Amino acid sequence: MQTDQDKIKVVIVDDEPQSILRLENDLAAQDDFEVIATSSSAMSAKTLVMSMQPDVLFIDVEMPGQTGFEVLQSLRDEMPMDLIVVFYSAFNKYMIDALRASAFDFLLKPYQQEELELVVGRIRQKMEGGDGSSSSSFSSSSSSESHQDPQNLLGVNGLLGTSDKRLAIQSISGLLMVKPDEVFCCTFDEDTRLWHLRLANGQIHKLKKQTTAKAVLSLSPSLAQVRQDCIINLDYLISIENYTLRCIFSPPFDQENITVSRRCYKAVKEKLEIL
Question: Is the fold of 4-127 the same as that of 150-274?
Fold first, then answer.
């Protein structure tokens, strides 16, 4: 049984009391973690960290008065060198900033329990002297068990159809975090010379210029190339018409007019047989 001295000490800073309560309770369920202080004010975060000297700081990004990034910046010269900082926020647009701020990890609210477990496991590894994190091995734990250079990050999670996982996809405007079943298709636009990712909610995101069809397909075996310029999520596919090779999709995509090229048809059939 661990003594209080052996436990990993945590401070939580978040302007949402309910978020603090949930995270505090979830961490309390870990035998080796102890939440020693919480605050709903970003302005008091620096004083709290310096006085409590925690091992880990969980801090929200968007708060009144100061952002979590500004708090971390103000701590730079004074905080303990081994302080583990985990940003967490409801807005994944902050992930790139978290990377640049050299945070240990990023947790997307509302988080899944297994996502928190991933962060907790990496913290344990770091505390035990392992290489739990660096700015180059950062993982959005809203997402993934593999760690890649964020500049090359296209997809870092498991398979489509695993709805509690998320894919990290680099678009021209930033890093997208999407659930696998939110991906409908990806089409290549000749005008922009970019792959366009289309989500189930109708949103379309332009992927970074270096993205190739091979890179998109590597996200999951549930993605299949039906034409040179079109990749679909087979989870939405009901059937393929015999003569026209038109794809029949489940709602809300039942009116889509996407056909399979003769060149791709055999490969699509083979892929369907292994799903």
Answer: no
Domain 150-274, CATH homologous superfamily name and number: LytTr DNA-binding domain (2.40.50.1020)
Q: CATH code for 4-127?
A: 3.40.50.2300
Q: Which residue has the higher pLDDT, 135 or 168?
A: 168
Model pTM score: 0.49
Report CA torsion sign: 13, 14, 15, 16.
Answer: negative
What is the chain's mean pLDDT, rounded? 79
Q: What is residue 166's predicted lDDT score, i.e. its pLDDT?
A: 66
The two tokens of residue 136 are 């180059």
Instruction: Give the sign of the dihedral formed by CA 189, CA 93, CA 91, CA 26.
Output: positive
* DSSP result, 160-220: TT-TTS-EEEEETTEEEEE-GGGEEEEEEETTTTEEEEEETTS-EEEBPTT--HHHHHTT-
Instruction: Encode pLDDT of 63-108 as tens digits.
Output: 888 888 788 777 766 665 578 888 887 766 555 555 545 567 778 8
Tokens of 121: 């496991």
Sequence ranges of the domains in the chain:
4-127, 150-274
For 68, other C-beta atoms within 10 Å of its C-beta total 28
| Residues whose CB is less than 8 angstroms from the CB of residue 151 and which lie 6 or more positions away in sequence, other chains included | 170
